[in-house]
Amino acid sequence: MEEEKIKESQLTLNQRLKQWARKLKNEIVTMYFVIKHPETPLYAKVLAAIIVGYALSPIDLIPDFVPILGWVDDVILLPLGIALVIKMILAKILEACREEATTNPPTIKPKIWVAAYVVVMLWFMILYSLYEWFK
């Protein structure tokens, strides 16, 4: 255990960020299997579907080209959503889904156009509200 902490402290920031990104990607794949698991409660399935849809969506809530704020959704919103789903489901379901994610990951990365549609509609509502406010 202590050797693991020493190794972890010797990693560069870039290496730690890559590990964190890899873990986040694995957790998103786990959320995909949480959706498919028959014992997952409906409310957890809905939230997991939103997370997976948003992660795979070609459009972000805050575009990535916006300095700093563009990564806020990926760095804060996705991990918070994943943590919330983890709290909603039983540990045995989570372990089964993590096992499935590591042994049998999905072979294709589908684009979730419904999530993209929701994000675009949200931006239209924001722009319309601003237009009406300053009119």
Provide a descriptive summary of the structure in words.
76% of the residues lie in helices and 0% in strands. With 135 residues, the protein is an all-alpha fold. It has one domain. It contains 6 helices and no strands. The mean pLDDT is 80. Helix 2 (13-36) crosses helix 3 (42-56) and helix 3 (42-56) packs antiparallel against helix 4 (69-88).
Which tags fit this structure?
single chain; about 140 residues; mainly alpha; 6 helices; globular
Tell me the number of strands. 0
Q: Please tell me how large the radius of gyration is.
A: 18 Å
Q: Kindly report how far apart the N and C termini lie.
A: 62 Å
Structural class: mainly alpha
Dominant shape: globular
Mean pLDDT: 80
Low-pLDDT stretches are: none
Question: In which range does the helix fraction lie?
Answer: over 70%
The number of helical segments is 6
Give a quick precis of the structure.
The chain has 135 residues and is mainly alpha-helical. Helices cover 76% and strands 0% of the residues.
Produce the secondary structure layout.
Elements: H1 2-10, H2 13-36, H3 42-56, H4 69-88, H5 91-103, H6 113-134
Helix pairs in contact: 2-3, 2-4, 2-5, 3-4, 3-6
